[in-house]
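Chapter summary example.
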Amino acid sequence: MTELLAPRRMIELEIDGQSVRVFEGETILGACRRLGIDTPTLCYGDTLEPANACRVCVVEVEGARVLAPACSRKAEAGMKVQTDSERVRHSRKMVLELLASSVDLSTTDVIPDYLERYDARPQRFGPPALPDPDRDRKRTGHHVEPDGQTAATVYATIKIDNELYVRDYSKCILCYKCVDACGEQFQNTFAIHVAGRGFDARISTEYVADLPESACVYCGNCIAVCPTGALMFRSEHELREDGDWREDDQTMTTTVCPYCGVGCNLELHVQDNTIVKVTSPDDHDVTRGNLCIKGRFGFQHVQAGKRD
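The structure predicted for these 308 residues follows.
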């Protein structure tokens, strides 16, 4: 016998002077979206549990001592929220400046609008982290040897160790979305996690193994949730390196994956009559944005040369 769920109660709160009713348990971010208030986010994903990492979405709640992350803070009856107060704008500006001064955000589509909206000037914290073909692609961390001595470890900021996707650590903001997608929220492979502490923190495979030697199953679900391009299709990376990536000229066709009977929806991104990458819609009730290795990367046969 099917158990009937209790009806969800509606609550009312005020955001920027506007009254809004939402279901109990909904977040402030959800309430803002109901009112059409554009609240900036980077680490938030509609298909993942909030990680509260970037703090770009903070809002001011009346009576609260600190600013609250809108992506995870639950709305409460009678709550009064300000999303554009001087305190909120100052906080968002500072976060954006710190991020943009230390991380290459050149492939993060929303960043130019955010920087302009909050008059953020990353150069206040030193030279901006802009993409540079001649940049040093390695950085140094430290580890402790078995004898207790501290030794330097060199980590490549760009890792190309497979044919399917590229890892560019210079673009990583440590939002943990890839870790969550690889872990218990989606794939349950647990091939990657956060390694190191403080400035040495980074996303890594076990024992810093190359992907072909790791537990990775190449589903590419980590790429789908990455907000900055730190994880990218090999095809997209190479086109960008050659200056041939033209997203505005691309078309997208929705189809059904032919490999099995599950019925996953595919979004084929096509440039110059060639498939350059494959995604899946977040709102699809089968995939929720996820695919397997065949669905996400098995498209080469479509554009194979004609046989004699």
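To summarize the output: The domain at 133-239 is CATH 3.30.70.20 (Alpha-Beta Plaits).
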